[in-house]
Design goal:
The protein contains 5 helices and 12 strands. By secondary structure, it is of the alpha+beta class.
Amino acid sequence: MHIMHRMPELAYDKGSRRFDSDGRMHVANCNIGRSCVSPYYGREIPNHKALGLDPNRIYRMYRDPAELERAADTFANLPVLIKHVAHTAGAPVQDLTVGTTGSTITYRDGHLVTDTLSVWTDEAIGLVISGKQEQLSPSYNYRPDMTPGKSPDGHAYDGVMRDIRGNHVAIVEQGRQGPTVIVADSLNGANRMKNPLLAAALAALLPTATPEQLLAVDSALAGDTRTAIFQAKMLLKPLA
């Protein structure tokens, strides 16, 4: 019989991420897409042959804010994958599915935002916490409108993505849409947990510990052992 080791719910990242009693990660108000101009090879653009596009040329495609806002509902309850692979009901990629987007998707401040992004597997959670694979990359179908122009922030583009329809969201090392489309965490861009399992254990043991205290122990463990022991004692002192 398989015995599941349960850990209490914890939140050591100021509320952006939480872990449920079975160890799954849930991220509130997470950006999964952004309005911007991104580069694509001609061969990556739908119907590129019919459009007469050079398959080896890079085209700059614009995600128009109005198009993203219209598409928001199509990104609800989509699979979160650990790598980009087309996902359909007839050809699901169950071995690569590691989570889901939430049921409510909104467009605000230039971003598509899911009310909750859930990550289910230890492997994917470890990649996110370590910072090795924490950016998000949405995959979708769209109709290319190859009318050139310039975005409101001054970026020239070769075409606009119209009639966007979400397919999945992938957790990637580096996405086309930049560092604001990421598995949200108040510590993004700051020091990374080098010992995430230890941090999770300390957070479960000491629910009042702040992210800064946990980072202090984590950082100390990477250096002087005596300093790390001192930091851990200060955290454990309330239990004495």
